[in-house]
Structure formats: C-alpha cells, structure tokens
C-alpha cells in the first residue's frame, strides 16, 4: 500500500519533481514481529539496494539482462513474492518504506529462495528521480494505494499527474504501468489521470481485465464475495 504526503508542486525545470513536492507514503510504522526484525537485519543486506543519489544499473544488480519491473508500495509483500516466483525470467524491485512489510518480504525471499527480487526501503519518488534512469523499465506496478477517501485528503493520493508523468518517463517505449484499486471513486480518478498523460496509451477501453500475473489477495477475494469491485488499469508507454 502506498500513500502520498502533501500536494504536488510544479515540476522542476529538468522535468523531475521536486523532492519536496510529493512523497509516496505517510509513515505509519506498525509493530514488527521478532521474525520480521530478524529477517530485516539479516536478509536486507543481501537483497536490499541502498538508496543513493545516483543512477543504478539493474542489469548489474541482478547479474543478467532481463525485463525489469518496479513495484511501488508492496505492503507485506505476499503478492510481490508470488509474482516474482511465477515470472522467474523477469527481475523485480519492490519499493516500500514500512519496516514490517520489508521484513516480511525479506522472510518470503529467504523461505522461497527467490533470486529475481530486490528491495529498496526508501521513498519511491526519490528512488525514481535519482536511481532509475529514464526509458529503463519494462513495467511498474502500483497495487491498492491508499485511497484517502475523504475529499479533503484527495491531494495526498499517489496517482497524481506529476507522479504519473515521472513514472511514464522511466518506462521504456512499450513498457506498461499497471494500477489497481478497490475504491471505485479512486479508480475513476486514476483513469482520468492516466488517460491525460501524453506519454501513455490505454491498453483497454476503460478498465482492463485483471492480468493473470496479478494474484488475488485474501482481502480482495473476501471483497469480491461481498460484491465489492476491483478495478485494474493497464497503460503502455508510447
């Protein structure tokens, strides 16, 4: 899950967002279990990528040339690990700030020996600006970001024009941006924002069918049984 903090400002002259303009989270640190703390301490040095204000070569990080996909706000990481296991020929980088989720994903990587998954524990906006080169990603996943349902909080939502422009700039031509939400009003806003980004084109006539690679979470399955909707949006870089 991902959050925003403060409203977006005007992009800088070089086309990047100011680091003060938008954040991909609001820090709500939950209680960590002993196992999460242990795996965070022991496994993160092996599977983590430290934040730095410099471009990184993901082919060098993973030791191979393969499609590269970034997930923003992976929560506890269960779906992230499941996708990486199912797609071993693709390399994944999960970005999350919350330590319990990072520790849990470290545990999943260790338990299932997932070689094609790395973690960056830092604000996604700063990571995208500083570390990820333009035209370098094959895909970006943003699954179930915080909907901030109250109208006065809508400015905190992650999917805003400036941020979508940043995401699109990091995709290769033909690369995809996949968002999903279970909040209908947010889905409507997402569709509007994504549709007005000139670098992107919708792959569907409105909302997309759920791609096979995105697993149904337990929460989502329960919601569907209760008649709640889930909306997927899949756009491609022109």
Automatic annotation (TrEMBL):
Binding site for S-adenosyl-L-methionine: 71, 96, 123, 146
Keywords for this protein: Methyltransferase, S-adenosyl-L-methionine, Transferase, tRNA processing
Superkingdom field: Bacteria
Catalysed transformations (reactions): guanosine(46) in tRNA + S-adenosyl-L-methionine = N(7)-methylguanosine(46) in tRNA + S-adenosyl-L-homocysteine
GO molecular function annotation: tRNA (guanine(46)-N7)-methyltransferase activity
Binding site residues for substrate: 150, 182, 217-220
EC number of the protein: 2.1.1.33
Record pathway: tRNA modification; N(7)-methylguanine-tRNA biosynthesis
Record's GO cellular component terms: tRNA methyltransferase complex
HAMAP family per record: tRNA_methyltr_TrmB (MF_01057)
Biological function: Catalyzes the formation of N(7)-methylguanine at position 46 (m7G46) in tRNA.
Family in the record: Belongs to the class I-like SAM-binding methyltransferase superfamily. TrmB family.
Protein name (database record): tRNA (guanine-N(7)-)-methyltransferase
Annotated source species: Denitromonas iodatirespirans
């Amino acid at each position: 899950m991902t959050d925003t903090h403060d409203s977006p400002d005007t992009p800088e002259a070089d086309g990047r967002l100011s680091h003060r303009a938008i954040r991909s989270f609001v820090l709500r640190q939950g209680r960590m279990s002993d196992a999460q703390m242990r795996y965070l301490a022991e496994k993160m040095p092996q599977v983590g990528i430290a934040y730095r204000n410099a471009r990184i070569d993901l082919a060098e990080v993973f030791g191979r040339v393969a499609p590269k996909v970034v997930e923003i706000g992976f929560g506890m990481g269960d779906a992230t690990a499941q996708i990486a296991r199912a797609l071993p020929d693709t390399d994944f980088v999960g970005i999350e700030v919350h330590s319990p989720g990072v520790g849990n994903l470290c545990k999943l990587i260790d338990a299932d020996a997932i070689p094609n998954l790395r973690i960056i524990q830092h604000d996604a906006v700063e990571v995208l600006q500083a570390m990820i080169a333009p035209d370098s990603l094959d895909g970006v996943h943003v699954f179930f970001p915080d909907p901030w349902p109250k109208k006065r909080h809508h400015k905190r939502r992650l999917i805003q024009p400036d941020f979508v422009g940043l995401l699109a700039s990091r995709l290769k031509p033909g690369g995809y941006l996949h968002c999903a939400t279970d909040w209908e009003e947010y889905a409507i806003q997402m569709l509007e924002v994504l549709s007005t980004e000139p670098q992107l084109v919708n792959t569907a006539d409105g909302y997309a069918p759920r791609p096979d690679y995105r697993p149904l979470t337990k929460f989502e399955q329960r919601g569907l049984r209760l008649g709640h909707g889930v909306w997927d949006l899949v756009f491609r870089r022109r």
